[in-house]
Design brief:
CATH architecture of the largest domain: Irregular
Strand content: 15-25%
Mean pLDDT: 96
Strand order of the largest sheet: 3-7-4-5-6
Structural class: alpha+beta
Distance between the termini: 13 Å
Number of domains: 2
Largest sheet: 5 strands, antiparallel
Length: 157
């Protein structure tokens, strides 16, 4: 089930707006704040925005408190991206290489996943985010990585 973009955007908490401590406090993960494996919060942020937008995920970790207690978050970018690619969620993404991603996505809005980011986890790391409509540039909710090896894009209206 694809959420409406405006709903997803309203439910998305960027790194600049909500820090890790506040984000983890909202979902009852205070014990994970200082753990190295949970410093990157991109998939957690996108998962939570999807859950708040009415999407049910089959993630690995439960929200421990608040109005969405019990809902499952997927904390990994690659796993969340593959979940979104299932027909039950957003379906097959449009896939682009570094050279064609910017032109291929154009001025559309939606969800975007970046794979094989240079300099991040020796080029094996990734990022998932929302892509906001903006005139003349591509703006992500937290960060864009257009120099990565591969971009997956799901347009949301």
């Amino acid at each position: 089930m694809k959420p409406a973009f405006i709903t997803l955007r309203e439910n998305y908490s960027s790194v600049d707006a909500v820090g890790q401590v506040a984000l983890f406090g909202e979902i009852g993960w205070e014990d994970l704040i200082d753990q190295e494996n949970f410093r990157n919060t991109c998939a957690i942020r996108v998962s939570l925005a999807l859950i708040k937008s009415g999407v049910r995920l089959k993630g690995r970790m439960a929200i421990r408190k608040g109005p969405f207690k019990g809902a499952l978050i997927e904390p990994g970018q690659a796993r969340l991206s593959h979940m979104l690619a299932s027909p039950a969620l957003c379906g097959a993404p449009e896939k682009f290489c570094r050279a064609t991603a910017l032109a291929g996505v154009g001025q559309r809005q939606g969800l975007v996943a970046f794979f094989r980011i240079p300099g991040y986890l020796d080029g094996a790391g990734g990022h998932i985010d929302i892509l906001l409509p903006s005139a003349g540039s591509k703006e992500c909710g937290s960060a864009c990585y257009w120099d990565c090896g591969e971009v997956w894009f799901w347009e949301l209206r």
